Amino acid sequence: MGSQVKKKLRIYGDEEDKISSLPDELIHHILSFTDAKEAVQTSVLSNRWKSLWITLPFLNFGEYRYSSPKNNTKFIRHVLSKRNRQSDLFELNFCVYNKGLRRCLIANVVEYAISHNVQSLDFGLLYKHQPFKLSTFNSNSLKKLTLRVRLEEFAMELGCWDLPCLTTLFLKYPDFDLTKGNQISDSWFTCLPSLRDLGLENWDLSISSFSFSIPDLTTLRLSNCILPKMVLDLPSLITLDLHNVNLPYDMSDMISTLISLQNLTISSPFTQDHVISCPRPLLNLNIRTSSSRYDSGSGYIIVFAPKICNFTSYGIFATTFGVPELETVNIRLQGWFQGLQSSKEEIYHRLTNMFPGLGNAKTLTFDLESIKALNEISSLLVWLPSPFYNMKYIKVPKTYKKSNMSGALRNYLLGGSPRSTIVTTLPQVCGIETIDKDDRKANEEGDNALQDIKFKIEWLAHERTPFRMAIRRLKRKNRKVMESDSTPADTFLDDLTTKIRGELVAELEEKVSKKVQDNLSMILKKIAEANPGLNMDIGRVAAIIASEDDENGTPFSAKTAGTAGTSGTAGISGTAGISGTAGTSGTAGTS
C-alpha cells in the first residue's frame, strides 16, 4: 500500500501545483463555497495552506445534524479562537440544526462577527428557541442581514436594532412555529434608514401592525405570506416578487399605488381567475404557475399594463393582455412537468388555449421543453389558425434543430405574420445614418408616439378586442364575485375602459402639445438662421409667448421659446418676425 502511494507521488511530484500558486484572494474565494470544517482541513495539504484558513473572510457553519453538540461546540470555539484577529470577516453563514448548542456560544458567534466588521450575516436556528432581541444584531458595518430565528414581537425603543448601513433584509419566520405570533411590527424598521431590499417569508401581514410605509424601499419579496389588507405605501418600489401568496381576484387596489413599479413577478397556483391591473411604469411581468396543483384546474388571467414590454410565463395558463402590442414573450416549461399527475400529452393540448391571448407579441421565445411540446401536438395545430398577427421573430434554442419542426407547427407560428422568421439569435438593431439625422429621428419618434397612442385608443374602443372579450367572459364566469364587489357588475367593464381611455387621451394631448411646440421652435430657428441681421429683444419675446397660448390653445412654454430664440436674433419680433410673408408667425406657429 505504501509503495503505491510513493509511486503516485513520484509520478505527480514533478507536476506544478497550480492551485497553491494562486494568490490568497483567489483561494479565499474558492474556500468561500465550502463549509468551515472543510476549509480548516485544507491546512494539512502543505505549508502553503497551513495558515490560509485563519485569514479567510468567509465562514460557513452548516447544519451539523449528525455531530454531537459537544464536538460542534468545540469546533466552533476552535475556529473563532485560532482565526487571525486582525482579519475582518466579510460574510458569516450560521444555520445550525443542533439543539445542544448553548445560547452563550451562539451569542459569542454573532458578537465575534459584528466586532470583525461583518457585512453579510445569514443567521438561523432550525429548532425551537427563545426569541432574540433585535439589539443583538446592532452593527455599523452590516449591509445584508438574513434571519431565520424568532424575534421579539414588540421591541421597545431600547431593544430596537441599530443598523445604519443595512440595505438588504430578509426575515423568515421559523417553519416549526407558524401558528404562534408570526406578526411584524413597524418598530422593527424604524432604525433602518438605508433599507432598500426587503424579503419576508411565513408572515401573516393581515394581522400585523406593519403599515407597509417605507418610502425608499425599491425591492419587496413576499413568500408564503398572507397579504396585508391596507394599500401598500411604497412610492419608490421598482421590483415586487409575490411567491405563493393569497392573491385577491382583482389585484388592482393592491398594486395600483406603486407608481414606480417596473418589475412584477407572481408565483401562484392560479386555480381561479384573476385581473391584474398594473401601474403605468411596469415594463416586465413574470407569471409562474404551480404544476403540483395544475390537475385541479387553471384560472384565466387578464392583465392590463399600458407600457409593458416583456412577459415571461412559466407553466401553462390562459391569459390576455389589455395592450395592443407586446415586445417580447418568453415561454418556459423546462422542469415544470415534474410532479404532475396528468400525462404530458394531455397537458400539451392545453397549450393551444394559451397562445390566442399572446397574438400581439412581436418576438416569441421558446425554451427546449416548450417547443418540443408544441411539436408533439402538430396533428392538432393543423386545424387551428395562427394567432400571431404581429410577429417578427420566433426564437428557438440553439440546440434545437429547425429541421425537426413539423410543417403544421411552422404554419401555426408563422401563418399569421408571413414576414416573420424563425431564429436562434435575435438580430441587433442598427441605427440609420442620415444628413439631418437628429431632426428626422425626433420627428419620426414624435409621429410614432402619436400614432401609437391613437391606435391604443381605437384598439381599446373596439368591441371585439381580446381584452374586452376576456373581461366579458370573466364577468359571466365570476358573476357572484363581481356582485359582491362594491362596483356593480354592469359598470365594471365601462369604468375600467373609461379609466384606461382617459389616461391614454391625456398622454396623447401631452404629446401633441409638445410636438406643436417643437415644430414652432424649429420654424423660428430656420427664420433666425435666414435673417441674421435682424435685431430684437429675445427675453421680451419669450416672456410674451410664455404668458399666452397659440390660436389652438397649445401652451408655449418659456423654456421652449428660449430655445427657439437663442438659435438666432430673429426669433419672432421685428419686421420679419411678426408680420409680413417672411415672418408667417401666426400661420407657421400653428401648422
Textual characterization of the structure:
The chain has 591 residues and is α/β, with parallel strands linked by helices. 34% of the residues lie in helices and 15% in strands. A 15-stranded parallel sheet has the order 1-2-3-4-5-6-7-8-9-11-13-15-16-17-18. It has a three-stranded parallel sheet with strand order 10-12-14. Helix 12 runs antiparallel to helix 15 and helix 15 runs parallel beside helix 17 (558-566). The longest helix is centred in the last third of the chain and has 42 residues, at 489-530. Mean pLDDT is 74; it is low at 5-12, 430-442, 536-543 and 546-591.
Topology:
Elements (H helix, E strand, L loop, with lengths): L1 H11 L11 H8 L4 H6 L5 H4 L7 E4 L7 H14 L8 E6 L6 H13 L4 E6 L18 E5 L19 E5 L24 E5 L17 E5 L15 E5 L8 H4 L7 E6 L5 E4 L6 E6 L10 E5 L5 E5 L3 E4 L4 E7 L11 H5 L12 E6 L1 H9 L1 H4 L11 E3 L11 H8 L6 E3 L13 H25 L4 H12 L1 H6 L4 H42 L7 H9 L11 H9 L8 H4 L1 H4 L1 H6 L1
Parallel strand pairs: 1-2, 2-3, 3-4, 4-5, 5-6, 6-7, 7-8, 8-9, 9-11, 10-12, 11-13, 12-14, 13-15, 15-16, 16-17, 17-18
Helix pairs in contact: 12-15, 15-17, 16-17
